[in-house]
Amino acid sequence: MEFLTPFLFYSIYFFGVGACVGSFLNVVIYRVPKGESIVRPGSRCGSCGKPVKPWNNIPIVSYILLGGRCAKCGKKYSARYMAVEFITAVLFTACFVKFGLTVDAVIYMALTASLVAVTFIDLDHMIIPDSITLPGIPLGFLSSWFFLPTTPQDAFLAFLIGGGFFYLIAVLVPHGMGGGDIKLVAMLGAFLGLKAVFITIFLGSVIGSIGGGIGIAFAGKGRASKIPFGPYLVAGALIAVFWERELINLYLDIFVF
Length: 257
Ligand SMILES: [Zn+2]
What we know:
Blueprint: H1 6-31, H2 61-65, H3 80-99, H4 103-125, H5 130-146, H6 152-172, H7 179-219, H8 221-224, H9 230-255
Helix pairs in contact: 1-3, 1-4, 3-4, 4-5, 4-9, 5-6, 5-7, 6-7, 7-9
The protein binds zinc ion.
Zinc ion (ZN) binds at residues 45, 47-48, 50, 70, 72-73, 75.
């Protein structure tokens, strides 16, 4: 077992934890917009209604073993369930690789998990639930107070300026920005601080413009305008979490020196 270094062990461990959290996020994504409990009842087949047995509910593994079908009725499930588990698993491993075995890493795992839920709920329903972003704001402040590289002052400024900026756009541009986007940016500010929230908004807008352009080119203007902004902000925020320092150095290299 010499090949199993602590680094490899924890990478695999957090991949597994992330896959399990991703499995729970599938429930959150499906039930929270409907106002249903995320605890009860347990997982059921959406087609035949039979409860999913625990041994058929192992993240990623069960989906592959059962060929993406219900063990009872054979109904094919969307590959998205496995994608959510896989994405969360990769993000958790990335948090460990980037931040090591620290409280910060665990906080970033919780943040990225909430962002995965936000992304898929926004894609499905064009809403970002307050039940995710509003509790996230005080949690972000507490995290930047006691852990994380940010200071409480920085977090509070980012919350005010990021959220305020989006609020202003929402007031000035009709249908330009949803209330959910404002609260999402406010939450990201509370966790990430001012520099990262600028990066988030900047990259989110750039990626959003590119995505919107591609959408118009392929789907026509009508459908493209229905693409929500939340997933782009999440993409910007994830890039900021993992590459904030590198991006700032790149910016300084290009524009300052
Ligand atoms: Zn079934």
